[in-house]
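A quick word before the example. In earlier lectures we treated sequence and structure as two separate objects. From today on, think of them as two lines of the same record. Here is Molybdopterin molybdenumtransferase written that way.
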Amino acid sequence: MISYAQALERLCADVRPLAGEACPLSAASGRVLARDVASPMDLPSFDHAAMDGYALSAKGALEAGAEHDVGGSQAAGDATTGAHCGAWEIMTGAPLPDGLDTVVPVERTQLLSQDDDGMPARIRLLEPVEPGANVRLAGSDVARRAHVLPAGIRIEPAHVMLLAALGITHVEVVRTPRVAIVCTGKELQPDPTQPLAAGQIHNSNGPYLRAALAAMGVQVVSCETVDDTSDNYARAVQAACTAGVDLIVSTGAVSMGRYDFVPETLRGLGAEVLFHKVAMRPGKPLLAARMRGGALVLALPGTPMAVAVGLRFFTVPVLRAMQRLGSEPILHACLDTAQQPKQGLRHFLRATLFQDGEGRLHAVVQGPQHPFRIRPFAEADAWVVLPETAGDCPAGTLVQIVSMQATPAFPLTRMHASGAMA
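And the structure line, produced from the sequence above:
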């Protein structure tokens, strides 16, 4: 049996990063960048007005009371006009006429006269104007050739806005991970429309894993339920390998009982077992292996919370490593319920969170942490992680917390990061 940190290090050392592929920007949200992005242009690409008003030259009279003839009008989308002195009516976003470099807002001027078409002909400044005021300069947001996005980040809608503004239509992203799910157990009824026979239970692990992985943008190639026989498990694993998956996640049959055939079956298929049994609770019997063809296998115990822990604290880091994503941030909260964890084991505890009147985040560990209980998991906000050396943890202890689900964003944006998750 090895520690959680040792197991994760051994597992991630065996991860093979996925190749990159071209992706249209319209389909890139949620994908992971495989290559740095540099700007092909200045943003803005030309000097333009930041508000409606009049364009002036800083070389002209900009003091209160100064009067200027208005030579014309410039709207957003108009081509730049030729050199001009005096004033020029201008709208927000319009390029500055050549020779003009300052904009005075229309509300800070007095209209003295209009031409026959009702266009401004002469204005007076009501306040002094600073040279260069109310002008957005070319490249003031992004300079041409500047690096705007680094490889290894998940593309969010704000990134799409930036890339679209730069005229970028395609980006290189990491190929989507392909995962197969295999649930073992003759007690499992895979079809929820069918009645349960004596001794049967509904398969909840498969739907949970499928939903959680899909929320991460992972392609779930298959989700199969097999009985407690080595041959059927071997067939499902081989079919997943033939389908070209990157990762196989199985549940059940991985401990020490007579029907726990997964370790020997994988060895019989030529897999290299990376480790079996981790000093943690729940989920201690977890096994990791590498198939001959390259696919990784994470064989999780079958109890629901062992599956949830295996997904959140092993599968998620593996998928992040495959996609070249960085480590997750460490988040902390004040423990409100004293804990006496067993020495030598890393504990993953379901908890609810609240913020006190001074803005401090608190974690309340829920009642009995039985690994078969699903409802408390559905009601929890976060995992509280207690390391192997935690010892007694009285109320008030600062503890690490991790988002409950395997989605990129933490549900409570008020929390602050302080490093990388161990």
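Notice the following. Residues 226 and 233 are 6 Å apart (CA to CA). We will return to this example when we discuss secondary structure assignment.
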